[in-house]
Amino acid sequence: MQDQDYILFEAYLSRDLSLDDIQIFENRLKTDLAFKDAFQLYKQTSNFLEHQIKNEEKTEAFKKNVEDISSAYFNKQSKTKAKRINPWYYSIAVAAILALGFFVTQQFSNPVYSDYANYGTMDLTVRSAQNDVLNKAEVAFNNRNFKDADMYFSELLKTDNNNMELQFYKAVSLVELNKYEKADALFDVIIQTPSVYKNKAIWYLALSKLKQGDEIACLNVLKTIPKDSEDYKQAQQLIKKLK
Amino acid sequence: MSQKKSHEDQKYIDGLVHNNAFIIQTIYDKFGPKVINYIKQNSGDEANAKDIIQETIITIYHQATEKGLKLTCPFDAYFFLLCKRKWLNQIKKTGNKEVTINEEVLSKDDDAQELAFETTLFEEQHSLFKDMFQDLGQACKDLLTATFKIKSMEEVAKSLNVTYAYARKKKSLCIGKLTKMVQESPRYKNLKS
């Protein structure tokens, strides 16, 4: 296109042409394809400039707004992600500290009764379902209410004195209640009697001595635990620590 | 633009045109996660997603303010398609990155495809005009800037210390020059074909 073509385009767009000239211009658009293409591109360019330059401030304000919202949005995203990860780190750290703490206590601190007294819960009702006192004894013992448990065990033993299981749990309750003399005497009785609770009673007698702070007595009892006892391994560990 | 009725999601387009912060925020909240996921699954990261989303929103803004943009499909499909194409183009340019997700998984929506195509075309034209304008001589740039900012050609002439007739003639010739530069650019030929 020539310079005068562009001048003509501008005049047409600014409505500066006479009616006759407009007619001529529009006719040429219909017949001259290159002229039409050039005019369309000129119009497009003009539109672009108008938008680009006239709206420059508006566009900048818009871009700034988007940038602010975008940054806030993506910051929140990464923070949420960080939050999501942290509990893992925390729990791993806590687990590590606990494990380390457990290890340290086990290895280097003085052994205490509570480290070893893992008698768990008793489960008598299965074998003697109808006995109300037995139920109560079991519930009391499992809830670590050793005072009541001792009372119910005593009541039961009045009629069932040879029940080594009851005797054993009564003795354990007595240790928990710091009634060592009675407890130790009862353990001695169990140890003298052949029953499945014999070896358990030796182990708990040793623990009773440990709880009393009598380490020598504890050691002496521990040494009597036979190899086939399920507590033999633990007993050997305790012996090592006490030496 | 098609003659179809505009979609109810046109509110997002209108919101962008009016620089409505609430709408912009909603676009991020509602449509951002899908784009972020897609880019992350296709060799990108959050920073890439941030750029792609931002550029796409600005392109839509330009098209809507410059040409009017009538949405004939859900904004979700249109927006995701635009972001996806933009990301795939970027990957293509930087080369050797893997794209794991099937190209046409998302949109079977023809309107969305068509509209996204129009927007992509608009974006390329817009960027071509912008680059060519930068390459224009300083005198033309100053005159055109003054012309479109001030609007009244008399004032433009006064501010540049030239006659009205000269300012007016110069304006046509400068736009003509820019038109020629665009026309002769290989990028323009690609856009036309």
Automatic annotation (TrEMBL), chain A:
InterPro entries: TPR-like_helical_dom_sf
Organism domain of life: Bacteria
Keywords per UniProt: Membrane, Transmembrane, Transmembrane helix
Regions that span the bilayer: 88-105
Protein's name in the database: Tetratricopeptide repeat protein
Gene source species: Bizionia arctica
Automatic annotation (TrEMBL), chain B:
Gene3D superfamilies: 1.10.1740.10
Coiled-coil intervals: none
Domain of life, source organism: Bacteria
GO biological process terms held by the UniProt record: DNA-templated transcription initiation
InterPro entries: RNA_pol_sigma-70_dom, RNA_pol_sigma_r2
GO molecular function ontology, one term from the record: DNA-binding transcription factor activity
Protein name, UniProt field: Sigma-70 family RNA polymerase sigma factor
